[in-house]
Write a structure and sequence with these properties.
single chain; FAD/NAD(P)-binding domain; 30% helix; alpha/beta; two-stranded antiparallel sheet; 3 domains; five-stranded mixed β-sheet
């Protein structure tokens, strides 16, 4: 693939000291003595809005008291891939356990308008050759990634065994039976030979610890608990027509805000974007997947492409080595 030439200013036109000073100033804004304590956890008076799953009703079930080979704590990419590797080795007596209502991890929870992968989908979405799936475009939408997570779970015999809306409360080793007791908030006592920790860090909202957050009476929700019933539209069709008479404020200008703001701004009566640190904004073409390119692929193409991507972002392309990705990630190295 021949990448388009990038318009990079000559080095003599760049004021490197000024750029470094700007980045230092922006970094200093973000450094806080409180560290993680600057955030409010979604507990107590905030738990009704943020700790539950607004997307999938909780299904009643009996508590389990059983013995299995492997308990996988998590049902996102890590949990699914752990299950796939076990499935490949013939280990099938396993369960994924997750407090979400389905597979996907961060892609289950984040349903805000505009949510997309920011990496090359043909690298980011795992096991494409193994499942025979191909993303619809270079940067897949969040709903497509979550649907693909469900497909992987079904293909590798994980879907029917998973325990959702289930929170692990304790894991205790029982020396007498040589098993882990995995106990949950649903009353389960699962005895597992092995436990795989496959949890992530973005499943619960981080709320700003600002005055008034506990007292505000207007409508308020986190982007990872998006309320389409209030805004209008859906995960796949983000027409936020119910915001037409609303004044909306969004706190933060990170990657999530960059994706959501164009949709909110299009439909809301008034939008206020509350910014501490500016985001880097750049053009990102997102073409549909070319069927001729798909037809040209040879076995092993995804691993080769992933290796090429890692070379492009972590090392340096050798002279004459092809850049298969050709986007902002590898452009940084090419420049």
């Amino acid at each position: 693939m021949t990448c388009q030439k990038t318009d990079v200013p000559p080095a003599e036109e760049l004021d490197i000291p000024a750029l470094k000073a700007k980045y230092r100033a922006e970094r200093d804004k973000r450094l806080r003595r409180e560290g993680g304590e600057q955030y409010v956890r979604p507990t107590d008076d905030l738990s009704d809005n943020y700790a539950h799953d607004p997307f999938t009703p909780v299904a009643e079930r009996d508590a389990l008291n059983e013995e299995i080979d492997v308990a996988i704590l998590g049902a996102g990419f890590s949990g699914i891939l752990a299950g796939y590797q076990l499935h490949k080795q013939g280990v099938t007596n396993v369960r994924n356990i997750d407090h979400a209502g389905g597979f996907g991890g961060v892609w289950y929870w984040n349903r805000y308008p505009g949510v997309q992968c920011d990496n090359d989908s043909y690298c980011y979405m795992p096991l494409l050759e193994e499942t025979g799936y191909m993303p619809s475009k270079k940067f897949a939408d969040g709903w497509e990634i979550q649907a693909y997570c469900q497909k992987m779970a079904e293909d590798f015999d994980l879907a029917d065994k998973a325990l959702f809306h289930t929170l692990v409360e304790s894991i205790v080793w029982d020396e007498t039976i040589k098993r882990w007791h995995v106990k949950t908030n649903r009353g389960d006592d699962i005895k597992a030979r092995f436990v795989i920790m496959a949890g992530g860090v973005m499943n619960m909202p981080k709320l700003p610890g600002i005055p008034g957050i506990h007292d505000y009476k207007g409508k308020m929700f986190h982007t990872s608990r998006w309320e389409h019933d209030y805004t209008g539209g859906s995960w796949k069709d983000p027409v936020l027509d119910k915001l037409a008479d609303k004044r909306v404020a969004i706190v933060g200008t990170g990657a999530t805000s960059v994706q959501a703001v164009p949709y909110i701004g299009k439909y809301a009566k008034q939008l206020y974007v509350l910014q501490r640190t500016p985001s880097n904004i750049d053009e990102r073409p997102n073409p549909p997947t070319d069927p001729d390119w798909v037809a040209s692929l040879k076995p092993g193409w995804q691993q080769e492409r992933m290796a090429n991507f890692h070379t492009g972002v972590q090392h340096m392309f050798a002279p004459g080595e092809e850049d298969q990705i050709c986007d902002i990630w590898t452009e940084l190295v090419r420049n």
